[in-house]
UniProtKB/TrEMBL annotation:
Keywords from the named record: Initiation factor, Protein biosynthesis, RNA-binding, Translation regulation
Pfam families: IF4E
Compositional bias per record (Polar residues), positions renumbered to this chain: 12-21
Region (Disordered), start-end ranges: 1-29
Organism: Aspergillus bombycis
Gene Ontology terms: biological process: regulation of translation
Homology family: Belongs to the eukaryotic initiation factor 4E family.
InterPro entries: TIF_eIF4e-like, TIF_eIF_4E
GO molecular function: RNA 7-methylguanosine cap binding; translation initiation factor activity
Designated name of the protein: Translation initiation factor eIF4E
Length: 238
């Protein structure tokens, strides 16, 4: 399966010596051809990050589906410390994404935060969840992960004292459930700001076309069945 890469813009088909006037192309066609190509999301962010490490370090986790809430037997680390864009791509480009089993999940989370509801950083949080068709899921997750690690999401939440803690992709039968986790699940301002930023920064062809359960939605962790049991179970181990 071809994995998404950082794209480099193509030059305009028309050079200085091949103008619309010389080629006989009509004005309407000419305008379409010479319209400047917007730099891709990946190129912009890659260019900014190449010389510098990420502001935060990240850990890549694998979550094997089980009905058990014993995450010690479900979660394991794929890569403990992703500190820069080069390390991310070494991990990302060499991972067998097509072999993730149904209902299993890969998480990319801030180092030190476990991708579970009962982690102290997640207790009062929630996440935006996107149901993405399989044909677009890998590219969607790639962009979401880059935006998250590059602090594009975090920047819009600073004034709300909120934090984006990680992103996840979970395999479903016909779709992937892709999530963006934040710390303050009751802060409507930060939730809306995060939604706008996700939709604005995604490539146009990846943006969901509607809202609601068939496209994307926000859910606090404490609204999930099993949340209280998980929190109480974690407390009993302390």
């Amino acid at each position: 399966m071809a994995l998404p890469r950082v794209h480099v813009n193509e030059k305009s088909p028309l050079s200085e010596n091949n103008s619309p006037k010389d080629s006989g192309i009509d004005k309407r066609q000419s305008a379409q051809i010479i319209a400047p190509t917007r730099k891709s999301l990946h190129q912009n962010i890659f260019g900014k990050l190449r010389p510098l490490p990420f502001q935060y370090h990240w850990t890549v986790w694998y979550d094997k589906h089980s009905d058990s809430t014993d995450y010690d037997n479900r979660l394991y680390v794929l890569h403990e410390d992703v500190a820069d864009i080069a390390t991310f791509y070494r991990v990302y480009n060499n991972y067998p994404w097509e072999k993730i089993r149904l209902r299993d999940t890969v998480h990319i989370f801030r180092k030190g935060v476990r991708p579970v509801w009962e982690d102290q950083e997640n207790l009062k949080g929630g996440c935006w969840r996107f149901r993405v068709p399989k044909s677009k899921a890998q590219e969607f997750f790639h962009e979401i992960a880059i935006l998250c690690m590059a602090n594009e999401f975090q920047a819009v939440l600073e004034q709300e004292h909120d934090h984006v803690l990680g992103v996840s992709t979970s395999v479903r039968f016909n779709t992937h459930l892709i999530s963006v986790w934040n710390k303050l699940g009751s802060n409507e301002c930060s939730i809306k700001a995060l939604e706008r930023t996700i939709l604005d920064r995604l490539s146009p062809e990846l943006r969901p076309t509607g809202t609601g359960s068939n496209a994307y939605f926000y859910k606090r962790h404490d609204e999930n069945e099993g949340y209280q049991e998980a929190v109480e179970g974690a407390a009993s181990k302390d």
